[in-house]
Amino acid sequence: MYIDGAWRPAAGTGAIAVVDPADERVIAQVPAGTAEDVDAAVRAARAALPGWAATPPAERAAHLTALRDALAARQDEIAATVTAELGAPPPVAHAVHAGMPVVVAGSFAELAATYPFEERTGNSTVLLEPVGVVGAITPWNYPLHQVVAKVSPALAAGCTVVLKPAEDTPLTARLFAEAAHEAELPAGVFNLVTGTGPVAGQTLAEHGGVDMVSFTGSTAVGRRIGALAGAAVKRVALELGGKSANVILPGADLARAVGVGVANVMANSGQTCSAWTRMLVHRDSYDEAVALAAEAVAKYVPGERVGPLVNAGQRERVRGYIERGIAEGARLVAGGPDAPLPAGYYVRPTVFADVTPEMAIAQEEIFGPVVSILRYEDEEDALRIANGTVYGLAGAVWAADDETAVAFARRMDTGQVDINGGRFNPLAPFGGYKQSGVGRELGAHGLAEYLQTKSLQF
Ligand code: NAD
Q1: Cα separations (Å) of 306 from 183, 286, 302, 341, 348?
Q2: Is 135 helix (H, G, I), strand (E, B) or coil?
Q3: What pLDDT shows up at residue 4?
Q4: Which fold has domain 245-426?
Q5: pLDDT digits over 317-375, tens only?
Q6: Domain spanning 2-240+435-457: CATH 3.40.605.10
Q7: What is the rounded CA–CA span in Å between residue 304 and residue 161?
Q8: Which of 253, 228, 248, 246 shows the shortest CA–CA distance to 238?
Q9: Which amino acid residue places its CA nearest to atom 42 of ligand 1?
Q10: I need a surface site. Which of 103, 239, 310, 325 has the fewest CB within 10 A?
Q11: Are 449 and 441 in contact (CB under 8 A)?
């Protein structure tokens, strides 16, 4: 455990085995933190809070720049670790899993220095002050990004943090703690407790010394954490699931829209909450789109361009959805439920056609390399289908021109929309409408999550 500025032994003797999903071998053990460890970490964070909150933003920014630099210096080690515990192919581990968090950490270093922590309105000065001690609970799908997207803005705001990372990917979180140590954050400002969700995670979420819980993961656990936070009247941020729509309007560059759409789902073996897992195509272009998707997905060879799923449970869940899609009458165009390789938690990249909006594979988050292609009659029908799930995290619209795509995107109930292939922007707020969550991460909006206001009247 990394608590109060030092590595120390866990209070208990329990351990969590870390498995390489590509060959199913145990590669490491980490301690399973108990309530005692969580309590020690929260106490350290509370003790460090007044000093860190009072540290001038420019000084906090200097620490965050040092953190960014420490992560950048460790990119090779981070990429190798993400490959080992998540199974991401090395080029993806380098570019996405190790590279993107450096950019995000850098963005918060800059924001810490430039963010207006004070504003004037009428006869008042409004102070934007840190919320306090943050309990951060992260998932395994982007092991470092998820950590950086919570810890960096919290520290920029002047909060102190206790991180409980996912059971499947604790080694990357440990590298983050080493980088935080190298950044010479004052003792207790950042703390790490590895452990299971029901023990360490739940204790952290319930702890009276935690002012805010920031959670990313499943809707089931998010709902529970939201209820706990509600009962305790504490701040909560939830980044949950998605079933995002890739809407291809008539007149769009069909080949590009389908190719980018398939790539978007295959990235990270489909384990991306914002993945465009529903492709919506006009009936006149439908057959052509299905053929293009089948052709595009053939390039994603398991064990080469596409990695395994994170664990056996996730593999079974995804295979179960593929079987359900077949049973519900969808047409299997590529892939299927059988294992593509003799070892490792691999699933065949799968494309379903003739998917109708009420099917489970059109409604529920699968979290695997599975694309569902739905047919629409006209724009109103496309909008109804796009908005017809409980989720609203991301999406895409392709049209003959940006104006047409934007007009459609304005009517979508979702937190992010990429217009005609727009690129990822680390400063754009990211988060959900409807049951995809509460709150926003990244950029100035992401920093604001960790602030509360105090008005002074003159
Ligand atoms: P999960 O919600 O169980 O785990 C996420 C984090 O919450 C982990 O750190 C876990 O230890 C912790 N946790 C679990 N139970 C807890 C509890 N009772 N109290 C506090 N913390 C707890 O997610 P999972 O089982 O790893 O994945 C299941 C599904 O969740 C996936 O198939 C996918 O649909 C979804 N998911 C979404 C995201 C996302 O980015 N939104 C990420 C991972 C998984």
Answers
A1: 34, 26, 5, 12, 9
A2: strand
A3: 98
A4: Aldehyde Dehydrogenase; Chain A, domain 2 (3.40.309)
A5: 999 999 999 999 999 999 999 999 999 999 999 999 999 999 999 999 999 999 999 99
A6: yes
A7: 37
A8: 228
A9: 217
A10: 103
A11: yes
Q: pLDDT at position 418, please?
A: 98
Residue 256 to residues 260, 261, 263, 321, Cα–Cα distance (Å): 6, 8, 10, 27
The set of residues, in sequence order, having a beta carbon less than 8 Å from that of 445 and lying 6+ positions away, is: 429
> Which residues are the active-site residues?
239, 273
Q: Where in the chain is the domain with CATH 3.40.605.10?
A: 2-240+435-457
Question: Given this model, what pLDDT does residue 258 score?
Answer: 98
Dump the DSSP string for 175-196: HHHHHHHHTTPPTTSEEE----
- Ligand 1 atom 30: the closest Cα is on which residue? 218
Q: Where in the chain is the domain with CATH 3.40.309.10?
A: 245-426
Q: The pTM is what?
A: 0.98
Query: Can you tell me the distance from the alpha carbon of 139 to that of 86, in angstroms, rounded to the nearest whole number?
Result: 11
pLDDT of residue 376: 98
pLDDT < 50 regions, the chain: none
Instruction: Tell whether ligand 1 has an atom less than 6 A from the beta carbon of residue 452.
Output: no
Q: Is 32 in the pocket of ligand 1 (CB under 6 A)?
A: no
Residue 197 Cβ < 6 Å to ligand 1: yes
Give the torsion through C-alpha atoms of 45, 141, 81, 179, to 10 deg. Answer: -30
Instruction: Please give the pLDDT value at position 50.
Output: 98
